[in-house]
Design brief:
The protein is mostly helical. The chain is built from 20 helices and 2 strands. Strands 1-2 form a two-stranded antiparallel sheet. α6 (103-130) packs antiparallel against α14 (316-346) and α8 packs antiparallel against α9. The protein is globular and about 75 Å long. 43% of the residues are buried.
Length: 493
């Protein structure tokens, strides 16, 4: 019986044995035909090879009318409203060259003009990201969103006079950028999203990795400041030179302390850049599947997904043109802003720390904040969290170390010796945010509390004295010198 069954199976499974088998060339041709079948996206556009369906525009090349039309509509209503500010851009350019004596007006108009230019850069980056795989695309989008910050940092360090006149502003801007993303932007995302949804949830893969990296980055940024503060009191009392023999050990004074702090900052910067590369590898390779799945689920939860998919999109060429144009405008306006910072601080008496910690980050991150808030409103909390934590990680692990290394190459005294007060604010803010996102849920109350913490820091920063008056880092030498002079005067009387 078994033999009969086997014979039946063998005979029944070979009805085409007499037919000629396809040759290898025919198999290859069939396979090529299968892979070259055209794909079409939701709008009926044939998908170009290498482009994701949701990013296919159905066009190629550069079309000025469509280009301006797509840019005008932007990604959301808030971004579309920001485009109304574009007239400030030519006014800022004209005012800078026609009336360079109007410092306050140039600063104010350039500050406003930065918003639409950064918005265009962010929009073009988002359009380009849609054409790429999800994780790689969002990493590229976050990187392009940080270009404004990198340009500002590079302009500030280049225009520094070599004595560190812009170093306090850069240091405050580094910490302010992280605080703005973590407290203001994330708080507004929780608040706005909570108004439309009673409670929102997000995946732990994004929140845990981001909060862990930020804690490590905060630790690294704290070390040079802690090193300086621990030794500054003893070093300030040490003699500046010694009259003893050549074999005597030189005293460890403030000059030696500042030199060592600078070297520690440069070493920490190299390590942080290595950590950033590891973060990119983890996102793009090791954890790629998890992030892809999480972000894809977020796209399915998007309440306006059908509207976003139906919108006209930029071509690849138009994306590159928009990025190049907006980057040129952003760079010019950044130069105008930085050139007027000294006037605003010395003449208009805006505190150095308030300028760097509050004003500069607000304008450089405006486009990213609008994108993240719009995503939270559409219930895409994983995307929103990525746009809040991702730039913070990039600022701490790439942008801050990068400006230290560029300053190193230019011979500028740029270090990571921050004011202890602001570093403590940063660490506490990271702990507060980590506690809120630990449960993977958010609501409008948590968002409001984060915004209130940011407002408290902003008010305190306004009253924080400038480095020339008193400081826990670079001002210690000046303060000690003034104190020594005062003591000498008292002894003389």
């Amino acid at each position: 019986m078994l033999r009969a069954q086997k014979h039946y199976k063998s005979s029944s499974t070979s009805p085409n044995d007499d037919l000629p088998s396809p040759s290898p060339n025919e198999k290859t041709t069939s396979r090529r035909r299968h892979h070259t079948l055209p794909r079409f996206n939701h709008n009926g556009h044939e998908v170009t090879k290498g482009i994701q369906p949701q990013g296919e525009s159905g066009r190629s090349g550069f079309h000025p009318f469509h280009f301006l039309k797509v840019i005008g509509r932007s990604t959301s209503k808030a971004s579309m409203i920001v485009n109304i500010l574009w007239p400030f851009v030519p006014v800022a350019l004209a005012l800078h060259w026609a009336r360079p004596d109007l410092h306050l007006e140039i600063f104010a108009i350039s500050y406003i003009a930065m918003v639409p230019a950064a918005n265009l850069l962010g929009f073009a980056g988002q359009e380009l990201a849609r054409k790429l795989p999800k994780v790689f695309g969002i990493l590229l989008e976050v990187t392009l969103g940080s270009v404004v910050e990198i340009v500002l940092f590079m302009v500030l360090i280049k225009l520094d006079n070599g004595e560190g006149n812009f170093v306090p502003v850069i240091q405050a801007a580094i910490l302010g950028s992280i605080l703005t993303n973590l407290l203001l932007c994330l708080g507004l995302c929780f608040f706005v999203g909570g108004l439309r949804n009673e409670e929102q949830s997000f995946h732990e893969a994004i929140s845990e990795v981001g909060s862990g990296l930020l804690l490590v980055a905060a630790f690294a940024l704290l070390i040079p400041s802690a090193f300086y503060s621990a030794l500054s009191s003893a070093a300030s009392n040490a003699p500046t030179n010694t009259s003893e023999g050549e074999g005597a050990e030189a005293p460890y004074n403030l000059e030696a302390l500042q030199h060592d702090t600078l070297k520690i900052s440069q070493g920490v910067s190299v390590i942080l850049i290595f950590a950033f590369l590891a973060f990119l590898w983890f996102n793009a390779r090791s954890n790629h599947g998890i992030f892809d799945e999480v972000l894809e689920l977020d796209e399915q939860r998007d309440r306006d997904a059908h509207k976003d998919l139906a919108k006209a999109k930029l071509t690849l060429t138009e994306c590159i043109v928009a990025i190049a144009f907006s980057l040129a405008i952003v760079s010019l306006i950044a130069v105008f802003l930085v050139q007027e910072i000294e006037y605003m601080v010395e003449v208009k008496h805006i505190p150095d720390n308030f300028m760097g910690l509050i004003l500069v980050p607000l304008v450089e991150k405006a486009a990213e904040h609008l994108t993240a808030i719009d995503e939270a409103w559409d219930n895409q909390m994983n995307f929103a969290l990525f746009h809040c934590i991702g730039p913070s990680v990039q600022t701490a692990l790439l942008n801050a170390p990068l400006v230290v290394i560029v300053g190193w190459g230019l011979g500028k005294p740029m270090d990571l010796n921050f004011e202890i007060f602001f570093v403590v604010c940063l660490v506490l803010s990271i702990l507060v945010v980590g506690n809120f996102i630990r449960d993977g849920k958010s609501n409008y109350l948590e968002g409001m509390l984060l915004v209130l913490v940011y407002v408290i820091i902003a008010v305190t920063t306004w009253y924080y004295p400038n480095p020339g008056q008193i400081s826990s880092n670079h001002g210690a030498e000046g303060a000690s010198g003034e104190g020594a002079a005062a003591t000498a005067g008292a002894e003389g009387h």
